[in-house]
Automatic annotation (TrEMBL):
GO terms for molecular function: threonine-type endopeptidase activity. Component of the proteasome complex. PROSITE patterns: PROTEASOME_BETA_1, PROTEASOME_BETA_2. This is Proteasome subunit beta. Belongs to the peptidase T1B family. It holds the Pfam family Proteasome. The active site is at T21 (nucleophile). InterPro entries: Ntn_hydrolases_N, Pept_T1A_subB, Proteasome_bsu_C, Proteasome_bsu_CS, Proteasome_sua/b, Proteasome_suB-type. Keywords: Cytoplasm, Hydrolase, Nucleus, Protease, Proteasome, Threonine protease.
């Protein structure tokens, strides 16, 4: 009733803002590689060129977030705190499926109103895992995943290059290539590429590991005097007048 009264009095709720991101995760051997670009946008504006989109849940579990930056960060911070309490209560390492359940239950409870699309990767005693978690709470358990506005370009690269016997260096190169495909085919993705390699021994975050879209260099210094215009070229052409007509305005009586 309150919302209806506000609408009748002329209040207009804020519209959804389109966000852009390219996040990727793959399984290699006995580990996981996560990748993300570092551009944060506010509609048509690039608000942050070096945003961190790979969040720590546990030492052996990390998560890439796409969607609204505040939603993804708060979701991962809250889940990380719950997993810390779970580890203290049980005295053992939290399995990846537990982190997946915590995230899915919260997202499903809000029925998609939390704009957080997540690619979670981790390695526990059961092996490496990649979980693709959607804002509505559904999940895909697949060996490679891509989410965000650069999904189509990144997934095309992953489907072409991933294979079960992929090694670490080849996997890192594949993730770089997939994120770069999203960067160069999506206006909402850009700047640098972050990687995170997770094994049984822990995680190795590689912050701004690759620069995807470098800023071009000026070829010359452009300095103009105020109130002047630079003339690049002058062209004079002969015009042949074939007919001339003169029109004079008529005077009103």
């Amino acid at each position: 009733r309150s919302n209806g009264d506000l609408m009748r009095n002329g209040f207009r709720p804020p519209q959804a803002v389109r966000t852009g991101t390219s996040i990727v995760g793959i399984i290699y051997g006995d580990g996981v590689i996560l990748g993300a670009d570092t551009r944060a946008t506010e509609g048509p504006i690039v608000s942050d060129k070096n945003c961190s989109k790979i969040h720590r849940l546990q030492e052996h579990i990390y998560c890439c977030g796409a969607g609204t930056a505040a939603d993804t960060e708060q979701m991962t911070l809250m889940t990380s705190a719950e997993m810390d309490l779970h580890e203290l209560n049980t005295g053992r390492q939290v399995p990846v499926i537990c982190a997946s359940m915590l995230l899915r239950q919260t997202l499903f409870r809000y029925q998609g109103h939390i704009s957080a699309a997540l690619v979670m990767g981790g390695v526990d005693k059961y092996g490496p895992h990649i979980n693709c978690i959607y804002p509505c709470g559904s999940i895909d358990k697949i060996p490679y995943a891509a989410m965000g506005s650069g999904t189509l370009a990144a997934m095309a690269v992953l489907e072409n290059g991933w294979h079960p016997q992929i090694e670490l260096e080849e996997g890192k190169q594949l993730v770089r290539k997939a994120i770069s495909a999203g960067v160069f085919n999506d206006l909402g993705s850009g700047s640098n590429i972050d990687l995170c390699v997770i094994t049984k021994r822990g995680a190795t975050p590689l912050r701004t590991e690759t620069i995807a879209s470098e800023r071009g260099e000026l070829l010359n210094l452009y300095a103009f005097q105020p109130n002047t215009t630079l003339v690049k070229s002058v062209s004079v052409q002969d015009i042949e007048i074939t007919e001339e007509r003169v029109y004079r305005p008529s005077r009103a009586n």
